Fold each of these.
Amino acid sequence: MQGIALKLRQHAGWPAETDVEKYADWVVILPFEARRGVRFPSADLLYQRRARLGRKEPDTEPFITELPNENGTRVAFASIKPRLGQFELLTLARKLVAVPVRNKAEKFAVAVAGFPARECERIAEAVIAAAYAAAAQMPSFKSKGDDKPRLRAVELFGVRAPHGFGRTAAEAEGNAIARQLSLLPSNMLTPADYLKAIRRIARENHWKLEFHDMKSLAHMKAGAFLAVAQGSPTADAGIVRLRYQPRGGGQRGAAKVALVGKGICFDTGGVNLKTARTMYNMHQDMQGSAVALGTLLALTKLNYRHPAEAWLALAMNHIGPKSYKPNDVIAACDGTTIEVIDTDAEGRMVLADTLALASRGKPGLIIDFATLTGACVHALGRAYSGIFTNREDLVPRLVRNGRTSGERVWPFPMDADYDEALRSDIADVKQCSTESGTDQILAARFLQRFVKNDVPWVHIDLSAARSKNGLAHIPTETTGFGVRYAVSLLLDGLADS
Ligand SMILES: [Zn+2]
């Protein structure tokens, strides 16, 4: 894993003609209308050339042109309306930043002008977020050459924020680590490899680490987790608990936050084996745990005022003589007996015990992340993730934070009558239903049973974990969706209420 080596320099003043010429690549964002106060030297030329192309609407794609100076300065230009939605703004920022990145630029300059100061800062933030996302190195095992981005620096003109966009950088670091881990194939990221990587990250960030291996989980009677893990030839599965304490003690009496993540390093489906098409990319079935880890990393870098924990359920879902089977009856660590229906619904099995353990310590809030159901993808597509909670009054806030962070979520109902589909003749509950088309809701209803002590709980079904051509500011198909969203939720005080 590698941090992001991107330097950001802020220039309070406006670029002079000579500044413009100094940089080979510019990203320029100016207003669609009301151009008063636009102090970018070549603004008139940019507007003229754009108009000549017949662009009559605000831009959703960059307009690329070269300025008539010695350097042939290349500009990726967009003229937009103020108060553009955060998702749309981040999407445009990704496309603008892609221009210098495609050209192997090591640095580019940004100018945002002609909007009210706070709006200029919001637009600049989107470009910086996109720059960090593009500069993050993703794993590549090509033996010859590399097509990695070389972006090292961004020079920002027209905005000078005293915070230096530290939150954007922290979110980007957390997102990058989530994407890097998710992209590693399962022959390089077994549960044992994953644990090793987590140990290193924990050391760097002064987190306490506990690992509940299969032996200790057997002692804790975590049968739901072990049912999945027992199919592996190597007994390297387990549940990691990481603990963060704010420097200086944080806010007095602040409630603990628990982040829980599904970490299935490869999901074959088990005995209910997946087909080729649906098995491809199943090395990323651990993305939920990587997002929980990335969120804890971002919170640590921001010295979040609350103590926080991450609970990561690391296992493989293998097929083999010891694999669990449909109709097996299994007891979770809280004593709940589960009738297994489909071994491919392994995520809710490992999370059942993990949620029960995480909620034993009575945290003030649990957020779990999981690439859990195909049904959620069918319902929402891959540009939104599904949200579920045992506190219905939180729903408007959860949705609003999706809008403002640019990582959009949509809620599903959690009414108790959905449980009828999970009624079992032989055990306390069925793992899932063979009939219902609402598996994302049934999975959430199933998980809720294991959240103990009535802890407020938010479950995120990561249908947006992979999205072709990237999503919002993220340029890779693997999105790391959830880090920016969860940081936004927590810094906006969700754990304070
Ligand atoms: Zn599965």
Note: Residues 117-135 form the longest helix (19 residues).
Amino acid sequence: MCRSPYVLLLVILAIYFVDASCAAAADEAKGKGPKRTPDSVFVATPGDVVAKMLEVADVKKDDIIYDPGCGDGRIVVTAAKKYGCRGVGIELSPKLVKAARANAVRNEVKDRVRILEEDIYAVDMSEATVVTLYLLPGMNVRLIPQLQKLKPGARIVAHDYCFQGRVEEPEKTVAMTSKEDAVEHHIYLWTAPLNVNSP
Ligand SMILES: C[S@@+](CC[C@H](N)C(=O)[O-])C[C@H]1O[C@@H](n2cnc3c(N)ncnc32)[C@H](O)[C@@H]1O
């Protein structure tokens, strides 16, 4: 009897997945490769949009700013350099964690900036007085339980994506065209406690 081509395909796929997961486990054991695949790719917020986000959040020296999914660390590094505040970046990609830490060293703010190689959903962010977000809308929604633990008065500033209607309308919206990419960007501001709409 002839073998079904589907059986052959299944065998090939099974070999591929076993091989890929062994390689991933070996990489992780060697300290290479992410603990798990990030939920989005890295797209950097342009510098002038970062500056506007920090202005909209009214960042001051006493603030502690968290950037879940910090990429190359530009938001926390800029905040620490410009305002003298502390910053915590959270990133899953080991390459970006390295780049963000190097960015903090290069800009002489490594004493005020911590870059955690962690999953954003596993980190307690309740000490943050400012949280910046440039994540997909579904990721923002998944962060709501953590954002609800922020102290009253903490500011949440989101770049381009909101909460899919799960949170009240932002109290402030700023639109700007970045000089770096000539694209219109939107910045949204909320102040804790977040009012979450029932689903
Ligand atoms: C759109 S980029 C934003 C980078 C930076 N915040 C900025 O505005 O320039 C999103 C980042 O989140 C990271 N990321 C995605 N899912 C993550 C997760 N579950 N935990 C930690 N980082 C994650 C990606 O690797 C990527 O660097």
Note: Confidence is low (pLDDT under 50) at residues 1-31.
